[in-house]
Specification:
The protein is built from one helix and six strands. It is an alpha+beta fold.
Length: 104
């Protein structure tokens, strides 16, 4: 059996993808090129992807109705129990949630 070596970035990406899929309760899909992809309504309250303090890779659709997240993120809310922890975009509900500024 042949072993393949992974570099650090590949290893973290693969283990992060597995962790996110294992803990995610919503829609998650994966592709080799794009990595993880989560989508949720921009009206969603109490979840990390729509929180102003969440530091994951995300974007708002042109119509402002869908938040797409492509990674795990870092909680930057000093009032949250997840402060300085990595979370999935769909972690929640959070009592200390604050609406992301990009969402009008």
């Amino acid at each position: 059996m042949e072993r393949t070596k992974l570099n650090r970035r590949e290893l973290l990406g693969k283990t992060g993808a597995l962790l996110a899929l294992a803990t995610a309760g919503g829609t998650a899909s994966s592709s080799a090129k794009a990595g993880l992809h989560f989508e949720m309504s921009s009206d969603t309250k109490g979840q990390c992807a729509t929180c102003n303090y969440w530091g994951g890779i995300r974007k708002l659709s042109k119509d402002g109705k869908i938040v797409s997240a492509q990674s795990l993120g870092y909680c930057n809310n000093p009032e949250s129990h997840n402060y300085h922890n990595t979370t999935t975009p769909e972690t929640g509900p959070m009592k200390k949630w604050r609406k992301w500024d990009a969402i009008s």
